[in-house]
Amino acid sequence: MIEPILVVVILLAMIAIGAPIFLALGAAGLTGLYMARGSMAFFFGPTSLFGQLNSFELLALPLFVLMGNFLAATPVGKNLFHAAVVWLQWLRGGLAIATVGASAVFGAVSGVSIAGVAAVGSIAVPEMLARGYSRSIAAGSVVSAGALAMLIPPSVPLIIYGAVSGVSVADLFIGGIVPGVALALALSVYLYFRVLLNPSEAPRQAHVEYSWGDRLRAIGGIWHALLLVAVVLGTIYTGVATPSEAAAFGAVGAFLIATVIFRSVGLRGTMEVLGSSARISGAILLIMGCARIFGDYLNLVRVPDAITGLLIGTDLPPEVILVLIMLALVGLGMLVDAVSLIVVTTPILLPLITTLGYDPLWFGIILVMNLEIAVVTPPVGLNLYTLKAVAPMLKIEEIVRSVVPFVMVQFVMLIIFVLFPAISLWLPNLMR
Q: TM segments (predicted)?
């Protein structure tokens, strides 16, 4: 077993010296394959990479990224926050709760967490600070709610997990709805009671009466995007289109919304969106392909089987094993980016999960809930640095401290869905 340990050390060493994650995964995997199979490694490596990326369902990934980037280039984020304020301003702490609601909906629009943090945070943070909200609530609500985009469909991490595990992306999308909504409600309830117990963190402003006409006009600024998302997801759930086909329709629809309805993107803007989407998609796909090389080596030397046998042999209850896995994933998520964590850990942990009798669909949801915690915790938490970029009035130390109670809420919800898998599987089973 010395060779797998050496391969892991190579991987960690390359990451530590700042090598690109795809290069670290590919080099470590090829090294392992060479030690196990000699020169045949140079045949296995390209075969593994191509085999990972040669998937029709994986076409949905760059297309949903393109859809999200086009919509992020429109005033949809600003309009979403305004609509949430108009509908929720009567609540104590309504601006913060509106931020959670706007981020949840924007997650369904973009599928990328940092896009939601940038779009909503650039508006919500200055607005909350101007109205006397505490800096902790302003920062924490934006950063934590932005992570909802990872779970609420169409979700890029769920697409990646589906490509790696073979689980239907459509089923994963359905499975992400209940946990995503539950987490958004949990964050909102926490904010409500927090400001109720400590009113100084969200001073009550002069009550503004909004008529039903105001509420409907607020919806008027976002109905295009909401209709597009509803049609895209509706065609997937009803079986009219595959996720890849629906993503293509969504990308075209988002392009028309950005260029024809809002007219916020011209020829130059379109080229920028296309270039940005290509870079993001290319980076994700390259990581996925190289991680497959690393994963195939681990499978070749039967590391997943060894880990499964070791944990099963401890005679620990399945619930205890699951909690240990969750703690390990949370820790890894603080050090490794979301894409790499999915493609590396899934081949290792999925055999153990199925041996314990759990559904791979449920594990995909739980894995992404772990990643929601990962993107708001340092040192790799991208949402933290994204908010710092769009809200320079906040210090990074303030942002990091602000997320601690929100992470606790996320962790409690994670444990609930770990211990009660039926909650995650209820809607997919119903749709079947």
A: 6-35, 56-76, 96-125, 137-160, 172-197, 218-240, 246-266, 278-300, 320-349, 361-382, 402-427
